[in-house]
Amino acid sequence: xxxxxxxxxxxxxxxxxxxxxxxxxxxxxxxxxxxxxxxxxxxxxxxxxxxxxxxxxxxxxxxxxxxxxxxxxxxxxxxxxxxxxxxxxxxxxxxxxxxxxxxxxxxxxxxxxxxxxxxxxxxxxxxxxxxxxxxxxxxxxxxxxxxxxxxxxxxxxxxxxxxxxxxxxxxxxxxxxxxxxxxxxx
Length: 186
Ligand SMILES: [Zn+2]
Hints:
By secondary structure, the protein is of the alpha+beta class. It has a single domain, classed as Alpha-Beta Complex (Peptide Deformylase), CATH 3.90.45. About 30% of the residues lie in helices and about 25% in strands. Strand 6 (about 125-130) and strand 7 (about 135-145) form a beta hairpin. The longest helix has 18 residues, at about 170-185.
């Protein structure tokens, strides 16, 4: 359904909100999760629209991070919100990790691997460079949950899912379990 209204109509913000879409999330072991994302060359309204839809999809799941790869768009864009009250959305375009320090282990989950939580070893502290939604270069430091989340989402852009840090045996078990789940939910 497409709604066309003049831009100055009352309630246009409400309509815009309705047009925002929840995007289907690919499920491991879908081979499209292993595609490498291409750099975004121009931060335009289509990129901003994708970011808005991804945030909506992430909040609805609910999740704390989502990479474009997971919604089958192979562009370097990730969204994150690790705040308690879901009030601090972060959108990173062409993100890269500049430095990594220390080591930490934490339990991770993924919207593409529903119901599976496993411990993964990551850098404790990272510094990150990216573009924001205005196309401006930004750089920031992250530790704790934000650090883990940034590393997890950037991995998605490289075609890597967190379960690939686990043993082959565990990966096989997870694939079997997800295949069973998919049969039940279909
Ligand atoms: Zn994930």
